[in-house]
Design a protein that fits this description.
By secondary structure, the protein is α/β, with parallel strands linked by helices. Helix content is about 40%, strand content about 15%. α3 links the parallel β3 and β4. α2 runs parallel beside α3, α3 packs across α4 and α4 packs parallel to α5. The N and C termini lie close together (about 5 Å).
């Protein structure tokens, strides 16, 4: 399979002041999928404009025809499976079946306390995620669902007519630990990683490669445990959080070298951030577009 090259467009611009143009250009450039973050705010962007993921993707669906759309990632931090399922089914319908749900356990950032709760511990996030994903799977696959869990409930929740994509829209499950990887193996159509966050500040590119090789091998073992064909699970790398940082976007050759080393690990999709000036995602737009148009052919 050829490498899929995708992008993530952060929702920090007003729709009619650059937001719309970026999504339209993503389709013109031939990206496989354009994702956006599903956060209430994010890191250094907290005190500036930041728009909602689902409305943004709905607007993007209305101006594109072929481009797949998705979140990278949605988490339980401020989402409930019942209401999320309704929004996703609507988005899948509007887009004509072009939606992928990137989903993860969430972190301890601004989303974790925006609703007034104390931040959950890593164990609590994992427990909630383990309940969130199977319930969301049912809500997107069945006409009516009732469920009583430790964290979430659904009482005769109706989701008719369901997703355009059958049996439901695909899940791309972000996980590096064994519990999350089991959810990816059981419910995911793809597995997502950003690498090993402990290496971001002081690690090397080679250490990052080794860490991701270890993650991929653990995923293989878990797939074998649950009876999942490991070749049936796409593997997605969200870039920008490894020791390489923005280096791969410095030139076409730099990106092809970076991507090629990860393709050798079994990655089937690589996601690069749409350039944002004066941020950690700053990049030359001409080089970025050259990578989008020329790199996939060099990585076949």
């Amino acid at each position: 399979m050829s490498l899929r090259l995708s992008t993530v467009i952060l929702p920090y611009r007003r729709w009619h002041e650059g937001g719309r143009a970026a999504w339209a250009r993503a389709e013109q450039l031939g990206f496989h999928t354009a994702y956006t973050y599903d956060h209430l705010s994010w890191r250094t962007f907290r005190d500036g404009p930041w728009f909602g993921a689902v409305p943004t993707l709905t607007a993007a669906a209305s101006i594109t025809e072929r481009l797949r759309l998705g979140t990278l990632v949605t988490s339980p931090n401020f989402r409930h499976p019942v209401t999320l399922a309704k929004e996703l089914i609507s988005l899948d319908d509007i887009s004509g079946g072009r939606v992928t749900l990137g989903i993860g356990a969430g972190g301890s950032g601004f989303d974790a306390t925006a609703l007034g709760q104390e931040p959950w511990t890593p164990r609590e996030r994992a427990d909630r995620f383990a309940e969130f994903v199977p319930l969301l799977d049912r809500l997107l696959s069945e006409d009516a669902v009732s469920y009583e869990g430790d964290f979430y409930s659904a009482h005769e929740a109706r989701n008719i007519p369901g997703c355009v994509q059958r049996p439901r829209l695909p899940f791309a499950v972000a996980a590096t630990g064994p519990r999350g990887m089991r959810l990816a193996a059981r419910f995911g159509q793809a597995w997502v990683t950003t690498g090993d966050p402990k290496l971001y500040e002081n690690g090397t590119s080679e250490q990052s490669i080794q860490a991701m090789r270890g993650q991929a091998e653990r995923l293989d073992d878990i797939c074998a445990e649950v009876g999942r064909d490991m070749t049936d699970l796409d593997r997605v790398l969200l870039t920008g959080f490894t020791p390489d940082r923005g280096g791969p976007l410095q030139s076409l050759n730099a990106f092809v070298d970076f991507a090629g080393r990860h393709v050798e690990l079994g990655f089937t999709e690589i996601v690069i951030h749409w350039p944002i000036p004066d941020s950690q995602f700053a990049a030359d737009e001409k080089v970025f577009e050259q990578i989008a148009m020329e790199a996939p052919a060099q990585l076949r």
